[in-house]
Write a sequence for this structure.
C-alpha cells in the first residue's frame, strides 16, 4: 500500500511503514510529479520479511494443492475486475496480466510426480515434486504487473513462500497485486514485499534462507545477481536484455508487415523486452523505409494516461538524455545523416517536462555501430540491409542477444529455413516477437538468459520445485533370508 510516507513493506501479512530514513521518489515520467516514495528497506526489515516467509512455509506447503489453486482462481478474478492497475500499466499497454495466474490454477496437474511400479520384485519407484521453501523475485520497471505475475503465482501455488522486490521506479502495481492476493486468501507471510535497490538485491542473493531467485532486468544487474546468488548455492533464473531482429523478405505482405514493425518497434516507447528494435531488409530497403517513416510519423506521442497515446514517455530523465544523446547516432559512423526520423527534439503539448522521445528511425546501420551493439530500450528502430536470407540470418546470429527474432515472408521455404537456423529463443513467423502464453515458457537464450529453467510454463514450475525420488519395497521377506548386498533395484 502507499501512504503519505510512501510505499510500505508487506511483512507477515501486514503492510508496514519502513523505518528507513532513505527513500527514492517515484516520478510520473510524463510530468516529473512525485507520485510517491519508495523506502530503502532496512536490513532488519528484510530479515523480518524472510523470517515471515520461513515461518509461513510449513503450514502453506501442507495446505492442500486444491486450496492453493483456489486462491489463484480468486486472484485471477480480482485482477480482471481491478481498474486501479491502469495508472501503472498504461505506458506499457499491458495485456498479458493474469494468464500466468490462470495457468497456476492447474498446478495439481503441473506438479504431478511420476510412478513406475515393480522396478524390481516388490519394489516401486515414484517421484514427488515438492516446494523448495522461501523464494525471491527481483523485478524491472517495465511490465510492472506482468513480471511479478511471472514469479510469485507459480512459486506460491507450488507451495513455496515468497519475498518480492519490485522495481524502485514503479512498485505500485506489485503493491496492488499483493493486496489482491491477500484478499484472494493467500495466508499471512506467504507473499512479502520489500523495497530498494542494490543493497536489498545483494541481501536477497546472500541470504541463507532463500532457496531460489528469479530476476528480470538488464544484463549488468542480471549477470551480477546470477553470479552472486549462485555462489551462495541458490537456484537462479535470469531474464535479461534483448536486441530483437525482424527479417523482411521482398515477398512479405506490405501492409501487415509495416503495421507489425511500427507496433513492435514503437509500442510502449520501445520499452519491452520483446520490442522489435532492428529490421533487416533483404533486397532493396528504400521503399520499405519511406513507408515506415510515413507510418511512424502518424503515431501520437503523449502521456500513457492519454487514451489517444500510441507511445508514452521513457522511464526517466537520465534514460531520456542517454537515449536521446547524439553519441550513438554518430559513433564511428555516418548514422547522423541516415537518421530518417529524429524523435529527439519532440515537444508534447501539456507535458513539456515529460521524458519523451518520438519515434526514431536509423537507416544503413552496420553491426559495428554503437546503436546496434547496445540495447537501446527506447522508441528507436534500426534498419539494416542484407542481400540474401542467408546473410540476414548470419547478421542476427552474430548478435550476442538471443531473446527473439521474426521473419516476414509469404514463402514457407524461407520461413522454415529461418525457423531452423535462427539462434533466438522466441521466433515469430509473420508475427512480431511473440510473448509465449504460459502453457509454453518464455525462452530467451544466449546473452538474454542465464540459468537452466525458463520462466513460467512447465520449466517455470520445475524451477520452483525439488524432485524427491522414492523407492519403496513392500514384499513378504522369507524369514531367515540372509543379508543381501545387492542394490535394491536388482533384486
Ligand atoms: P535494471 O536491471 O536496471 O533493474 C532491474 C532490477 O534490478 C531492479 O529491481 C533494480 O533495483 C535491480 N538492480 C539494478 N541494477 C542493479 C545492480 N547493479 N545490482 C543489484 N541490483 C540491481 O532493469 P530496468 O531498467 O528496470 O529494466 C529494463 C531492462 O530489463 C532491459 O534491459 C530489458 O531488456 C530487461 N527486461 C528483460 C525482460 C526479459 O524477459 N528478458 C523483460 C523485461 C525487461
Amino acid at each position: 500500500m502507499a501512504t503519505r510516507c510512501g510505499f510500505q513493506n508487506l511483512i507477515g501479512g501486514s503492510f508496514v511503514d519502513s523505518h528507513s530514513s532513505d527513500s527514492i521518489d517515484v516520478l510520473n515520467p510524463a510530468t516529473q510529479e512525485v507520485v510517491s516514495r519508495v523506502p530503502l528497506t532496512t536490513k532488519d526489515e528484510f530479515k523480518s520479511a524472510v523470517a515471515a516467509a520461513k515461518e509461513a512455509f510449513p503450514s502453506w506447503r501442507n495446505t492442500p494443492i486444491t486450496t492453493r489453486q483456489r486462491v489463484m482462481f480468486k486472484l485471477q478474478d480480482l485482477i480482471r475486475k481491478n481498474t486501479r492497475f491502469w495508472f501503472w500499466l498504461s505506458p506499457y499497454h499491458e495485456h498479458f496480466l493474469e494468464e500466468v495466474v490462470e495457468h497456476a490454477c492447474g498446478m495439481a496437474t503441473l506438479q504431478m510426480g511420476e510412478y513406475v511400479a515393480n522396478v524390481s520384485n516388490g519394489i516401486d519407484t515414484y517421484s514427488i515434486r515438492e516446494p523448495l521453501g522461501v523464494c525471491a523475485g527481483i523485478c524491472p520497471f517495465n511490465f510492472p504487473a506482468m513480471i511479478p505475475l511471472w514469479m510469485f503465482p507459480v512459486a506460491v501455488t507450488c507451495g513455496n513462500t515468497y519475498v518480492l522486490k519490485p522495481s524502485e521506479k514503479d512498485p505500485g502495481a506489485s503493491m496492488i497485486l499483493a493486496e489482491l492476493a491477500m484478499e484472494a486468501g493467500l495466508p499471512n507471510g506467504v507473499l512479502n514485499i520489500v523495497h530498494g535497490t542494490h543493497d536489498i538485491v545483494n541481501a536477497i542473493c546472500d541470504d541463507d534462507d532463500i532457496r531460489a531467485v528469479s530476476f528480470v532486468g538488464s544484463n549488468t544487474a542480471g549477470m551480477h545477481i546470477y553470479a552472486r546468488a549462485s555462489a551462495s548455492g541458490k537456484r537462479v533464473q535470469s531474464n535479461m536484455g534483448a536486441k530483437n531482429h525482424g527479417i523482411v523478405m521482398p515477398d512479405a505482405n506490405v501492409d501487415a508487415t509495416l503495421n507489425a514493425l511500427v507496433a513492435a518497434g514503437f509500442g510502449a516507447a520501445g520499452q519491452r523486452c520483446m520490442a522489435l528494435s532492428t529490421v533487416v531488409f533483404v533486397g532493396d530497403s528504400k521503399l520499405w523505409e519511406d513507408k515506415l517513416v510515413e507510418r511512424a510519423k502518424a503515431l501520437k506521442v503523449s502521456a500513457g494516461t492519454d487514451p489517444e497515446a500510441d507511445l508514452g514517455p521513457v522511464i526517466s530523465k537520465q534514460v531520456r538524455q542517454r537515449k536521446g544523446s547524439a553519441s550513438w547516432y554518430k559513433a564511428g559512423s555516418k548514422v547522423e545523416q541516415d537518421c530518417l526520423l529524429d524523435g529527439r527534439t519532440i515537444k508534447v503539448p501539456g507535458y513539456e517536462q515529460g521524458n519523451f522521445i518520438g519515434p526514431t528511425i536509423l537507416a544503413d546501420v552496420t553491426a559495428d555501430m554503437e546503436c546496434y551493439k547496445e540495447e537501446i530500450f527506447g522508441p528507436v528502430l534500426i534498419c539494416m540491409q542484407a542481400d540474401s536470407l542467408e546473410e540476414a540470418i548470419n547478421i542476427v546470429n552474430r548478435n550476442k542477444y538471443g531473446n527473439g527474432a521474426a521473419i516476414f515472408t509469404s514463402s514457407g521455404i524461407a520461413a522454415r529455413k529461418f525457423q531452423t537456423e535462427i539462434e533466438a529463443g522466441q521466433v515469430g513467423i509473420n508475427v512480431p516477437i511473440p510473448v509465449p502464453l504460459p502453457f509454453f515458457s518464455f525462452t530467451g537464450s544466449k546473452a538474454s538468459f542465464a540459468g537452466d529453467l525458463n520462466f513460467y510454463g512447465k520449466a517455470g514450475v520445475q524451477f520452483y520445485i525439488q524432485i524427491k525420488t522414492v523407492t519403496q519395497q513392500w514384499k513378504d521377506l522369507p524369514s531367515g533370508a540372509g543379508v543381501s548386498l545387492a542394490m535394491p533395484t536388482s533384486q
Q: What stands out?
A: Residues 138-143, 165, 167-168, 197-198, 201, 216-218, 220-221, 224, 239-242, 273, 375, 377, 403, 442, 444, 448 surround nicotinamide-adenine-dinucleotide (CB under 6 Å).
